[in-house]
Amino acid sequence: MIPLSWYLVVSVLMLACGLVGLLVRRNFITVLMSVELILNAANLNFVAFARQLGDLTGQVFPVFVITIAAAEAAIGLGIIVQLSRLKTTVALDAVNEMRG
Amino acid sequence: MDFLVAHFSQAVFLFLAFFSLGGAVGVVVLRQPVHAALSLLASFLGVAGLFVLARGEFLAAVQVLVYAGGVMVLFLFVIMFVNVRAVGKEAQYLRPLVPLAVVGGLLFSALALTAMWALGRRPPADAFPLVSVAGQEVGNTEAVGWILYREYLLPFEVVSVLLLVAMVGAIVLGRKPKEMEKA
């Protein structure tokens, strides 16, 4: 039997990777991928606790999370396509027109 | 060898965890977006394997179909669409890297401390998720379906409307500027 803490360690490390990618990467596409990593870490926690507590509700919520992630990816990538048409780049620090 | 047989699930867990975390690190450090996307794919598949180990077979299938199938294709499609070569030559990280890394480190250590604190409070003993509905043994998919469609029907419908809105939004965003003016 795999202890709950193993899952939590994997989850928190994956969250850290996603967080770092979200904060430091310059490429918009990679930033979106980091968001997917964070959502995956949350799903892993849900499933691990569902097994630990013997409650299948924890396997229902990842379905919602995956749906949200798909919607977010679709919209984010649509924005990237428009951005690349407008600026010919997807670097985040190139989009600074609203800076005061 | 006997040790490996006795701890087979642990060995598989470590392998899958290595796979998914290696993919996650690859997303952050790899320069080319295509490589990062493939690394993310490896991470998704590893997480699907971890779901199977935690007795979430249905979710593992959904993970492979939706993430590895749908979302990854979307990412790769957009990467091919945007000029990747121009992206590869530029700097990889945002300019003030140190403050950002410090903020990330602080957030991470706060989370890790919370996790440590939560782990100190012992959760109840290990139990298998319920696989019986109305006194009958059913598979994981059916059991998840019972909960999803009976207790969480409204959230399910709301999230499907959200998906529809996102789909329409993505189509509108993806149109060429000329078509936007006409509309």
Task: Summarize the structure in words.
The complex is a heterodimer of chains A (100) and B (183). Chain A is built from three helices and no strands. With 100 residues, chain A is an all-alpha fold. In chain A, α1 runs antiparallel to α2 (28-53) and α2 runs antiparallel to α3. Chain B has one domain: NADH-ubiquinone/plastoquinone oxidoreductase chain 6, subunit NuoJ (Four Helix Bundle (Hemerythrin (Met), subunit A)), CATH 1.20.120.1200. Helix content of chain B is 78%, strand content 2%. Chain B is built from nine helices and two strands. Chain B has helices spanning 2-6, 8-29, 33-53, 57-81, 84-89, 97-120, 140-150, 153-174, 177-182; strands spanning 132-133, 136-137.
The total number of structural domains of chain B is 1
Quick one: how many beta strands of chain A? 0
Largest sheet of chain B: 2 strands, antiparallel
Alpha carbon gap, first and last residue of chain A: 56 Å
Query: Shape of chain A, please?
Result: elongated
Chain-averaged pLDDT of chain A: 86
User: Based on CA inertia axes, which overall geometry of chain B fits?
Assistant: extended
Strand order of the largest sheet of chain B: 1-2
Helix content of chain B: over 70%
Radius of gyration of chain A: 17 Å
Q: Kindly name the structural category of chain A.
A: mainly alpha
- Average pLDDT of chain B, rounded to a whole number, is 81
What is the β-strand count of chain B? Answer: 2
Q: What share of the residues of chain A lie within helices?
A: over 70%
The biggest beta sheet of chain A reads: none
Order of helices and strands of chain A: HHH
Number of helices of chain A: 3
The greatest interface here is: A-B, 73 and 89 residues
Per DSSP, the total helix count of chain B is: 9
Structural class given helices, strands, pairing of chain B?
A: mainly alpha
As a percent range, the share of strand residues of chain B is under 5%
